[in-house]
Design a protein that fits this description.
Blueprint: E1 2-5, H1 14-23, E2 27-30, E3 48-51, H2 58-66, E4 71-74, H3 84-90, E5 93-95, H4 102-116, H5 119-127, E6 145-149, H6 153-163, E7 168-172, E8 185-186, H7 189-195, E9 198-201, H8 215-220, E10 225-229, H9 238-247, E11 250-255, H10 277-284, E12 288-290, H11 299-318
Parallel strand pairs: 1-2, 1-3, 3-4, 4-5, 6-7, 6-9, 7-8, 9-10, 10-11, 11-12
């Protein structure tokens, strides 16, 4: 089987690509850059393509299809960066991957604790030898009622971890999970907004939940609510979030994802002028922690991402059931 890999990273993925390509007898083609119309020709002769978070629009889908690519596997759980309608129209197969939910669950807990203990400001003060106490008094997790929106593998892991802190936990999902019911009570979305002092998001992005956290949703929330997002940036209306922070309605936010992050994260952009005004505003708040979509980033997760991308293509080639198939 021949697989062309875009966004191939020498510093973390290479050892896993070499290991699993040998295991599955895969011939690799490699490009260190993300897939574009300009470098799509490199995949000619390769029926399978592996990407990360590159924007794959209709034009790029058609280009790959014309080059004989049969399947695109994204080494991510989310696949909203791929135009599925265009892929469906030309018969292109699409798959994603899965990885241990513990990496994102751990990171979610980290952002929660940093938010309630005002860790951003503590670190900033410590760096300039300001050891004063005013303004950095924190809160304790056991006193919170936490709302978990989305109870798939990651949401379920977060709920399990939260239970160890003694929190009261409410959950919302279209499909209830019996495992979750050991620790949390399923309620309506409005009840999550109205009853929870902390709300954390753990669902994929769809047309129906785009900007689910908007001005109307924030208005229903408790004063001083803490919002955590390690899922997808576009679940939150950034303008509404900023307004909520400015008014004090939102007490703190821990954000590993933001809207319009494509083309920015995972690159050295320190000398660039970024057209990301909302990002600059968010980073200016003392009660907002913004990190560059790193919740997934552990050794176990990277290994899983590479292995599952290869396996997905391999299963398709062998005519076997592919657990990661999207189209």
């Amino acid at each position: 089987m021949k697989l062309f890999v875009y966004s191939y990273r020498e510093f973390d993925e290479a050892e896993y690509f070499q290991k699993f390509s040998k295991e599955y007898h895969v011939e690799l083609g490699i490009c260190h850059d993300g897939a574009t119309l300009e470098n799509a020709h490199l995949a000619e002769g390769y029926p399978y393509v592996s990407i990360i978070t590159t924007k794959v629009d209709a034009e790029l889908i058609k280009r790959f299809h014309g080059l004989g690519v049969k399947m695109i596997s994204t080494r991510t759980i989310g696949y909203d960066h791929i135009d599925l309608n265009a892929a469906r129209a030309c018969g292109m197969n699409i798959s994603n991957v899965s990885y241990s939910p513990e990496c994102v669950a751990d990171y979610t807990m980290l952002l929660m604790l940093m938010s309630i203990r005002k860790m951003k400001r503590i670190i900033q003060r410590e760096e300039i030898n300001d050891f004063s106490l005013p303004g950095i008094q924190g809160q304790e997790m056991h006193n919170f009622t936490v709302g978990v929106i989305g109870t798939g593998r990651i949401g379920c892991s977060v709920i399990r971890d939260l239970s160890g802190f003694g929190c009261k936990i409410y959950a919302y999902d279209l499909h209830e999970n019996d495992e979750v019911k050991k620790y949390a009570q399923y309620v309506s979305l409005n009840e999550i907004y109205e009853k929870c002092g902390m709300i954390t998001l753990h669902m994929p992005l769809t047309e129906s939940n785009f900007h689910m956290i908007d001005a109307a949703a924030i208005e229903k929330m408790q004063d001083g609510v803490i919002i955590i997002n390690t899922a997808r940036g576009r679940l939150i209306d950034t303008k509404a979030l900023i307004a909520g922070l400015e008014s004090g309605k939102i007490g703190a936010a821990g954000l590993d994802v933001i809207e319009d992050e494509f083309g920015m994260y995972y690159f050295d952009r320190k000398s660039d002028i970024l057209s990301k005004r909302d990002l600059y505003i968010l980073r200016g708040f003392p009660n907002v922690v913004v990190t560059p979509h790193l919740a997934f980033y552990t050794d176990q997760a990277v290994s899983d991402m590479v292995k599952h991308s290869i396996e997905s293509c391999y299963f398709h080639e062998q005519g076997k059931t592919d657990p990661w198939r999207i189209l």
